[in-house]
Amino acid sequence: MTDRDHRPRVVLGVGGGIAAYKACEVLRRLTESGHDVRVVPTESALRFVGAATFEALSGNPVHTEVFADVPDVPHVRLGQEADLVLVVPATANLLAKAANGLADDLLTNTLLTARCPVLMVPAMHTEMWEHAATRDNVTTLRRRGVVVAEPASGRLTGADTGKGRLPDPAEIVDLARLLLGRPDALPRDLDGRRVVVSAGGTREPLDPVRYLGNRSSGKQGYALARTAVQRGAQVTLVAAATIALPEVAGAELVTVGTAQDMRAAVRQAAVGADVVVMAAAVADFRPTDRAEYKIKKTDREPDPIGLTRNPDILAELVQARADGQIGAQVIVGFAAETGDSAGDVLEHARAKLKRKGCDLLVVNAVGEGKAFEVEDNSGWLLSADGSERAVALSSKSHMASDIWDAVVPLIQA
């Protein structure tokens, strides 16, 4: 048995749109992370990117027609053996063929024979994406269990901008890996819901150069926003200090700096929302005085820095809900905890849940190589009804899906 037999098998379909060149980056990321990828482009796709490029990056032959390698019956075998079929970009033409069961080339045949998760990532001009025919095709595919990702907004071909841009390759690969690990991770159970997610770590300025901050990368908050979008939600992402992360396709991004900035942005977005998830690491304190100029280093010891407590955004949201100011949404908090002489991580978290009054508390044990600035996460979900659930170490997107699984019944209730 070869090493390839142990690797997840991905069929990467490539449609004939200008975004086909981005499929090369998706392919590179998949192969470098240990996936066996077979690229199946359309004839039109090869007018944008040559077969030699896909073959060199994947290490596999590239064909477009069902009559290639006939003894191996690739139009059946590829779909049967795949662990995931990923289509990047999924053009309006490909979506229409898939929705109507057409099979006139190797890729559309593969889509019909696949019994694994199928992820189609659209890219096209805004008018094409919003056309009633395309919307009907997307609805049909989603009803059949195909994950049709929401496209991003931004620059399209020519001078046009709008919705229909291919999401960042890193985001596409993240969704693909999520479905490989958990095929049911992206149901459309948040359709019609408004969701607010905060992410990242706030920064409290000491002077024009320096600030008080924390180690939060914002990756968990971004994963929550990304999975919520793909589960159908209208998402507002309030982000602090996350400039290194790719934008979340389909989410409205509001950037903030300080805790007070985040407080204002979240309170505004929370009005009328169904769910607010406070995943951001909000600074507990800010400098009492901010220097107008850069504090100079001198031979004498620096003056002590006075601190002022920042507002407790989570507790204020719970109170605002009780006062009828922001509706009856579900409120989710996060707790980054370490054990100490007064108690362990869970004991501190239980006390925090009681003190804050939120509906669900996501608890992370933090420390070197845990939670902050890493790709994976683990922890516990503590509910206001007293139930508790451990979440095993997995990708942050996987954990995000677990969190939404816990939130959806709370919304429905």
From TrEMBL:
Cofactor(s) needed, names only, are: FMN; Mg(2+)
A single Gene Ontology MF term assigned here is: phosphopantothenate--cysteine ligase activity
Any Pfam family from its record, for instance, is DFP
Gene3D superfamilies xref list? CoaB-like (3.40.50.10300), Flavin prenyltransferase-like (3.40.50.1950)
Stretches for region Phosphopantothenoylcysteine decarboxylase: 1-194
Return the cofactor note field.
Answer: Binds 1 FMN per subunit.
User: Locate the Flavoprotein domain: which residues?
Assistant: 9-174
Q: Does the keyword RNA-binding apply?
A: no
Q: Which UniProt keywords apply?
A: Decarboxylase, Flavoprotein, FMN, Ligase, Lyase, Magnesium, Metal-binding, Multifunctional enzyme
Residues in the signal sequence: none
Q: In which pathway does it act?
A: Cofactor biosynthesis; coenzyme A biosynthesis; CoA from (R)-pantothenate: step 2/5; Cofactor biosynthesis; coenzyme A biosynthesis; CoA from (R)-pantothenate: step 3/5
Catalytically driven reaction(s): (R)-4'-phosphopantothenate + L-cysteine + CTP = N-[(R)-4-phosphopantothenoyl]-L-cysteine + CMP + diphosphate + H(+); N-[(R)-4-phosphopantothenoyl]-L-cysteine + H(+) = (R)-4'-phosphopantetheine + CO2
Q: What is its EC number?
A: 4.1.1.36, 6.3.2.5
Would the keyword Nucleus be found if you checked this record's keyword annotation?
no
Which ranges carry the DNA/pantothenate metabolism flavoprotein C-terminal domain? Answer: 190-408
Region named Phosphopantothenate--cysteine ligase: 195-413
Q: NCBIfam families attached here?
A: coaBC_dfp (TIGR00521)
Biological role stated in the UniProt entry: Catalyzes two sequential steps in the biosynthesis of coenzyme A. In the first step cysteine is conjugated to 4'-phosphopantothenate to form 4-phosphopantothenoylcysteine. In the second step the latter compound is decarboxylated to form 4'-phosphopantotheine. Catalyzes two steps in the biosynthesis of coenzyme A. In the first step cysteine is conjugated to 4'-phosphopantothenate to form 4-phosphopantothenoylcysteine, in the latter compound is decarboxylated to form 4'-phosphopantotheine.
Question: Which family does this protein fall into?
Answer: In the N-terminal section; belongs to the HFCD (homo-oligomeric flavin containing Cys decarboxylase) superfamily. In the C-terminal section; belongs to the PPC synthetase family.
Its recorded name reads Coenzyme A biosynthesis bifunctional protein CoaBC
Q: Which organism is it from?
A: Actinophytocola gossypii
